[in-house]
Amino acid sequence: MTIKLFTLLQNFWMKPGITIFGAVLIFLIACNQQKTGTEEHKDDSDIPAAKTETVHHETVLTLNDGKKWKLDEPTRTNLQAIQKIFDESLKEPIPVYSTLASKLQESANKLVSECKMSGKDHDMLHAWLERFFSALMELKSAEPDKQETAYHTIEQLLKNFDSYFE
Predict the structure, then answer these.
(1) Is there a domain that residue 78 lies in?
(2) Does 38 map to a domain?
(3) What are the helix (H) ranges across 15-143?
(4) CB distance 122 to 140 below 8 Å
(5) Most buried residue, 9, 30, 60, 165, by most Cβ within 10 Å?
(6) 153 lies in which domain range?
């Protein structure tokens, strides 16, 4: 009975959607960030296109009054590890998406578990991570078209990351 229960739980947590949902949930809990609901939402139209990325229709990734958002050391280190994993995949003639997705998920889980950020810097990081986790879920999918699109989305997210964060 114990082995069946263990196998059932293992299969449950190995599903990509549940894994990513769990990671996002842990991220939200670990960061202990609560939205106040009093933030003023800006329209995208008054922000230069080169410095704007709309995430899930409401969260807008912008600069901090023309400056980059600050990351704490564990977050910076974990994001550098994610970048390194992705850079290694660029050297492969044909990237193995499932292997890459597993490696990225492992690093993203570590980032989430070590997150101690709060405030507006955290909110902007979260806006970026929402897109990253969404693309990571697509990279884990079995559909080659979705995987390729997700791969390029992750590539762009990582290229643009340094434009917003230091």
Answers:
(1) yes
(2) no
(3) 16-31, 73-90, 97-114, 119-139
(4) no
(5) 165
(6) 2-31+71-164
